[in-house]
Each structure stands twice: as C-alpha cells, then as structure tokens.
Amino acid sequence: MRKQTLKKSAGKRQDRASKPAATEQSPPAANPVPVAAPKGGGSPLNTLKHNLAGKRKAIFEILDEVKKVKPEQWQDPNQVEQLAKGFAQKLGLPVPDQRIKQFVAAYKDATKNGPNPNVDELVKKYGHHVDDETLKEIKKFVPKTK
What we know:
Order of helices and strands: HHHHHHHH
Distance between the termini: 46 Å
Structural class: mainly alpha
Shape: globular
Strand content: under 5%
Number of helices: 8
C-alpha cells in the first residue's frame, strides 16, 4: 500500500510541473489547507496530522523560531499570540482570531502557576472536544507534578 502512495505523489509532482507558471506565483501560505477530517473520520489528533502532512519544511522553520524565542518573551501573552498567528499562517492553516484568543486565554491559565499545570483541569475548562487519545498525547509533553 505504501508503494501506491508514492506513485500517486510522483504523479502529482508531474502534474504540478505541467501547470502554467501563473499558478505558482501565489505563496503557499495564501492557499490554506482545508481543515476537514480525512476520509473515514477520525479523532481531532488524526485531523491535525492530516492537515500537517507535507508541511515538514514549515514545521522545522517554526521549531527554529521557537528555539530563538527568549524566556521573557514566553511570559508576554501578546508575544505568544503573535507567534501563534505567525505559525498558523506559515503552516497555511486557517485559524480564526476567536480561536487564537481562546488559545491565549488557555495559555495564560496554564502558565499562571508555574511550569507544571494540571492538564485535566485545563482540558475540562478549555478542551470540551478533546478526546481521550488526544489528552493522552498532550500529557506526554507535560512534566509530572511532584
């Protein structure tokens, strides 16, 4: 099944090469990726993975930017909001301003008591649509409280 996927990708590259140059002038961020779930449904985590497929270069650029952010910049919610907007734009993911504002509110809540937030409490308050699989994935990246 993997070989078939590779063949399709190669065919798409050939199709792109044969298109007129006028379509290639628009930047990739101007063409947002649809946020619909992949065929067959799936969890929000799988939807995110689907939306980020093929964005490897942008992801590594974002990671480089994150490394350059100074600790005091992470303490400023306005700076975090600007970073989030920039990252979404770089990935070509359409994120409404309301969603960014919700993220910043959750970020403020998560960081107000130091680096060890209570994930379950935050998900209960902000993540009404977070499934168990996604919650499990989130917890992998949050240090355990002592």
